[in-house]
Write a structure and sequence with these properties.
With 309 residues, the chain is α/β, with parallel strands linked by helices. The chain has a single domain, classed as TIM Barrel (Alpha-Beta Barrel), CATH 3.20.20. It has 8 helices and 16 strands. The strands form 4 sheets. An 8-stranded parallel β-barrel has the order 3-4-7-8-9-10-15-16, surrounded by 6 helices. The two termini are 32 Å apart.
Length: 309
């Protein structure tokens, strides 16, 4: 018998003091509030679930076209449609908690006070942690505006950190001119982990109507097309911050996830791939475990090829 066949890999990890059974998390905006995927995959097996983006007040989202397929990717302009934080806590959170995985509330807002108030309300709820979204490209106020430079990022991360006792992850934009500076500002103001990348800004033109597809002209690009760039950004940022990185961007199989873990990520999020194959995350978890067993790896720390613990 091969020596590695008897090894039972350990997939558990902690991020900001929160224990995850494995490093695979459903990305915000791609998994609803969990109930939408019941019966399609083993949800209880996931490491965590990031909620659809939440705002203080309900939002109807963007008008016009919202989704547009591209080669190896998907453009979206949803615009943070959601029922509002209080309605989420009352109607969605109990069912989400019952599913089993770690619950991460993705928080967005139009201004600093809206972010702060939303954080206060979520701090009193049963969510496990917050993912502060300062990188959404599909809203006209807030979102991406806060994630483009260190000063703006600090101006929202600091108040949210003071308003909320929950562990705090900040979701970064790949479009920031100096991503490392933004990341450092977030950490200095209380971020305990970082997630990257959010979607890249892109656009599409309807050549038959001779106009942009989206009412907002630009939209967020996700899917396999962005994975090599996202991987580079994770690799580069790993050496510049001392908090865990949760990586996302085009992960569609276990090998993709392993690349990000070897680039320095502590965990990964799977998003657009779940639309095409709802079982993707279960397959990624199983694939990571098999990879570890085949390569004699006992813990996720064995993926570290960077020489930094």
């Amino acid at each position: 018998m091969n020596e590695t066949q008897g090894i039972q890999p350990g997939l558990s990890l902690k991020i900001a003091g929160v224990e995850f059974r494995n490093p695979v998390i459903a990305a915000s905006g791609t998994f609803g509030y969990g109930r939408e995927y019941r019966g399609l995959l083993d949800i209880a097996a996931l490491g965590g679930i990031c909620t659809k983006g939440l705002t203080l007040k309900p939002r109807v989202g963007n008008a016009g076209e919202r989704l547009w397929e591209t080669p190896s990717g998907l453009l979206n302009s949803i615009g943070l449609e959601n029922p509002g934080i209080e309605a989420f806590i009352e109607k969605e959170l109990p069912g989400l908690r019952a599913l089993g995985p770690v619950v991460i509330a993705n928080l967005s807002g139009g201004d600093i006070d809206e972010y702060r108030q939303g954080a206060e309300i979520l701090a009193a709820s049963s969510v496990d942690m917050l993912e502060l979204n300062i990188s959404c490209p599909n809203v006209k106020t807030g979102g991406l505006n806060f994630g483009m430079d260190p000063t703006s990022a600090a101006s929202v991360v600091g108040p949210v950190r003071r308003a909320c006792s929950k562990p705090l992850v900040v979701k970064l934009s790949p479009d920031a001119p100096d991503l490392a500076a933004v990341a450092r500002a977030c950490v200095q103001n209380g971020a305990e982990a970082l997630s990257l990348v959010n979607t890249f800004r892109g656009m599409a033109i309807d050549i038959r109507r001779r106009r942009p597809v989206f009412d907002n002209v630009t939209a967020g690009l996700s899917g396999p097309a962005i994975r090599p760039i996202a991987l580079r950004l994770v690799w580069e940022l790993y050496e510049k911050v001392d908090v865990p990185i949760v990586a996302l961007g085009g992960i569609a199989c276990a090998d993709d996830a392993v690349e990000f873990l070897m680039a320095g990520a502590a965990a990964v999020q799977v998003g657009s791939a779940s639309f095409a194959n709802p079982k993707t995350m279960n397959q990624v978890i199983g694939g990571i475990e098999n990879f570890m067993r085949e390569n004699g790896m006992r813990t996720l720390n064995d993926f570290n090829v960077r020489g930094k613990n």
